[in-house]
């Protein structure tokens, strides 16, 4: 197996990393939520101290909204606080700490907005931002650091998904939780799961999401053998729509797989699980190569590249696209990274400097390690691509070994594969579902239910 661990960091860099991690952990230690007119919350950051000795308040903003001059200043440091997805932050005090607080009046009185959900006659009425405002109904799943429950809001009666992240005093807040919460607060799109609320206690950090009843993995399990071509178009269009939105904001998802694509009753697809997501607007010379579940990991990352951009996600789109059509995973590596690369090269051809400039300089590429294969037509590997108009050509634009050749999400939305969709879909506002357009609906699927996805993909180093 190839060694994909990041290179050791110098002592002075480790010191900086620990200092900023402490600051990030402190920022979650005093969470409070400000109520907005919509009934949901904005997180406020109160900067306790600055070099000038003056404090300032500001809302947490999406990382892509950082002014250009501040982005340039950040590029001078190669430190990346989110380099290791599995890393955690230790809880210790720091002089330059940023604590998260709800804004309140200078007199210390509760603002009218904060009293909106309660009245003098009902002091115990449920409020947003409180643990007792949600009722747990059933467990949906459990991971290494979080458990997901189906729940119900006592404030408005709506179903929610409660992602309960366990906090340990000596370890602090997991980086994935910090990343997911901070990024999702700034993302408002119908094809991205909506973060309703954040609840912080001494023992747990709970992220409250809109409830979506299934995911693409379960949907394909229920309808094996490949999905209806019209439904594939609708699912892929929504996936590209959501990706285009985050890519334009310099955010990479970095963990695209069917389990992370939620599907509603009406067929609305939503990008979820941003625990490994990264904001490209946070400058860094390199990224971690320990990203993306193995089956959906691109060859450049498998070969040790840490210099990637939105093209990383587009490889995953190609794998998911083929899987929806063919009914089986495109590259289901069963052994290790070497096996995964062999499966890719068997179809797309073993790369060379002519087909992939710079491949020989990648950390884990050795010409004598791989069998030399010639590229094939994709329909030779996945015959059902030939049965759907323009599918093979579009899949070939996604599944390019050389990253720079992969089609972008925005460009893919205008591919001929979508030629029969209503023109209105390209004009919809971000928060409007494609199913708001007349005649847009899912078609009945054929096939007998069989449990495949949950079992087979568990061998591909899924984090769920």
Explain how this protein is built.
With 464 residues, the protein is an alpha+beta fold. The protein has a domain of 245 residues: Orthogonal Bundle (Transferase(Phosphotransferase), domain 1), CATH 1.10.510.10. It has 12 helices and 15 strands. It has a 5-stranded antiparallel sheet, covered by helices on one side. A hairpin with a 3-residue loop joins strand 6 and strand 7. Helix 5 packs antiparallel against helix 7 and helix 7 packs antiparallel against helix 10. The radius of gyration is 23 Å and the shape is globular. The two termini are 22 Å apart.
Cα distance spanning the termini: 22 Å
Strand order of the largest sheet: 6-7-8-10-9
Proportion of strand residues: 5-15%
Largest sheet: 5 strands, antiparallel
Poorly predicted ranges: 1-9, 30-121, 280-291, 454-464
Estimate percent helicity.
10-25%
Give the CATH H-level superfamily of the domain at 215-459.
Answer: Transferase(Phosphotransferase) domain 1
Radius of gyration, whole Å: 23 Å
| Reported CATH architecture of the domain at 215-459 | Orthogonal Bundle
Topology:
Elements: H1 11-29, E1 34-35, E2 41-42, E3 44-47, E4 56-59, H2 68-74, E5 98-100, E6 134-142, E7 146-153, E8 159-166, H3 175-184, E9 195-200, E10 204-210, E11 214-215, H4 216-222, H5 229-248, E12 251-252, E13 261-263, E14 269-271, E15 278-279, H6 299-302, H7 311-326, H8 337-348, H9 378-381, H10 391-398, H11 409-412, H12 453-456
Antiparallel strand pairs: 1-2, 3-4, 3-5, 6-7, 7-8, 8-10, 9-10, 11-13, 12-15, 13-14
Helix pairs in contact: 5-7, 7-10
